[in-house]
Amino acid sequence: MNNIFDALRESHEKQRLLMDALLKTSGDSKSRREFYAQLKQELQLHAEAEERNFYIPLIKKDSTIDMSRHGISEHHSIDKILAQIDETDFDSPAWLTHMKSLQHQVLHHLEEEEQHIFQMAGKVIGDEQKQDLAAKYQQEMGESVH
Ligand SMILES: [Fe+2]
Fold first, then answer.
1. pTM score, two decimals?
2. The Hemerythrin-like domain covers which part of the protein (predicted)?
3. Dist. CA 114 → ligand 1 center (Å)
4. Is the pLDDT of residue 144 over 70?
5. What is the pLDDT of residue 74?
6. What does 117-129 look like in DSSP terms, one character per residue?
7. What is the pLDDT of residue 143?
8. What are the pLDDT digits (tens) for 73-116?
9. Is it the case that residue 26 has pLDDT exceeding 70?
């Protein structure tokens, strides 16, 4: 049985791989459209499931309220860049510029979570809850529970 940190790291890794793959595509191609659809779905599903099964329990504790608000606000920044990409033609040079700024923002967010937020969270969430949250997170992401 894995814990919520393993489950979140697994999703983060998927996001990194999809962004790398997307930045190697060019023009209005099938691969660019498909990878982008996958990335967008992955980012949106993940943000909702992570807020519900990670940030909401943390926002209830005094020591982790500020970092939870910060993490959630970064999800909104990511949503805004996704909306910009949605409004841009796949073959426009601006598409790649927006995609690079999305990658920059997402990588910053994932690193902050993995390097800082997970450590703080580890101190306030009990072992049993870590597993319970992982199961709920994975269920919401549509994955089988390990
Ligand atoms: Fe996040």
1. 0.94
2. 4-121
3. 10
4. no
5. 98
6. IHHHHHHHS-HHH
7. 65
8. 999 999 999 999 999 999 999 999 999 999 999 999 999 999 99
9. yes
pLDDT digits (tens, 9 = 90+) for 5-22: 999 999 999 999 999 999
Q: State yes or no: pLDDT of 1 exceeds 70.
A: no
| Token duo for residue 120 | 């703080």
User: 125-134 contacts: CB < 8 A, separation 24 or more?
Assistant: 125/4, 125/57, 125/58, 127/3, 129/57, 130/3, 130/4, 130/5, 131/1, 131/2, 131/3, 131/4, 133/3, 133/4, 133/7, 133/53, 133/54, 133/57, 134/1, 134/2, 134/3, 134/4, 134/6, 134/7
Nearest Cα residue to 103 out of 34, 41, 36: 36
Q: Residue 10 C-alpha to ligand 1 middle, in angstroms? A: 12
Report the C-alpha gap between 64 and 92 in whole angstroms. Answer: 41
Mean pLDDT of the chain: 95
Distance 111 CA to ligand 1 centre (A): 10
* Residue among 19, 15, 45, 12 nearest 100 (CA): 19
Q: Ligand 1 centroid vs 47 CA: distance in angstroms?
A: 6
| Residue 136 CA, ligand 1 centroid: distance in Å | 16
